[in-house]
Each structure stands twice: as structure tokens, then as C-alpha cells.
Design brief:
Blueprint: E1 3-6, H1 13-22, E2 27-30, H2 33-38, E3 41-44, H3 50-60, H4 62-65, E4 73-76, H5 78-82, E5 84-87, E6 92-93, E7 98-104, E8 113-119, E9 134-140, E10 142-144, E11 150-156, E12 158-166, E13 169-172, H6 180-192
Parallel strand pairs: 1-2, 1-3, 3-4, 4-13, 5-7
Antiparallel strand pairs: 5-6, 7-10, 8-9, 11-12, 12-13
Amino acid sequence: MNIIIIDYGAGNIKSIQFAFKRLGVDAILSNNIDEIKTADKVIFPGVGEASSAMKMLRESGLDKVIPTLKQPVLGICLGMQLMCNFSEEGNTKGLGIFDVEIKRFSNAVKVPQMGWNTVSNLKSALFTGVKEKEFMYLVHSFYAENCKESIATTTYETSYAAALQKDNFYGVQFHPEKSSLAGEQLLKNFLEL
């Protein structure tokens, strides 16, 4: 199976690559548009700040390519947020795949949210074998509001979307590569989609 992790300069790509290696899969790091288009599955990671990550996507032409992909695509953390319409982080226009906005947690709570949190209301084959209220690892200051595309929720200050799905596009706010056995199960499920 040909798995591509999009390497556009804003990802924790090595830990994702190692997570797939533990599952016996060699995921390839690439920013080559032809390789990405022909991959069996695509991982769209992201760590850092939304507006600078979006700028890197625009400079490489990936902002035009990602929304047109037909194979299963998994956005992780900032990757998922960039797949949404808009982020308050840097007033950033996103890729518009998910019809939802990204908001910042208020100063009433510790920001960023960092650590383990339970995920609930699991819907989608992405969560096969993952139990309700399973713990996943999160590190983020911004969140996707609950919306019709939510396939999992979690709570920190407010209830929000822990995962999204629309057609062949999936996004998770948590880091499956750092979420122990439950995260490993989710990556395994993604490989089987």
C-alpha cells in the first residue's frame, strides 16, 4: 500500500511515520503533487501556526491539490484545522473541505489544552474497535466547533469536534500517533478504509 505523508514544512511527520512503521507500513514523506495524487492513502499532518502553514501550502500549490484528492485523506491536528473554512489563528482562510470554523479557547482555561482527554459520540469506520470515552492525546489552542461533519466530540471549556468526516476526508484534532493503543487502532482503521 502506498501511503504518503504530506511534507510541507509544518508537521510532526517523523512520529507519524514511526507509528505506521509499528503497523508494518512504510509511509513515504513527500510534497510531490503527482506522488500525492496517486497515493492509496494520504496523511495531512500539521504542527505550528495556521497562517504560516497555509502560506506554505499555497507556495507549493498543495492548497489547490488537497481538496481535489479522491483517496482517503486524514488530517491530523493543524492539518484537520486547515481543512476547515476559516481559523481565528492569524485570520486564516482554510481549504474549505469541512464546513466549520476554528475558534480559540478563551483565557478562562489553560491554553494550549495539553494532555489526555476522552472522545465520545464516535461515528464512522475510523473508530471501529475504539471504545466510547477512550483517551486520546491533544495539544492545541484552537478547536473546530461541533457541526454536522463531527464524528467524535470531546470537552475542554466547551464541547467541540474531536474528529470530522466528509466523503473521503477525515480529520482528527488529537494525535493518534501519540495516543497509545487507541490511536494505533485508529491508524489501522484508516489503512483499511
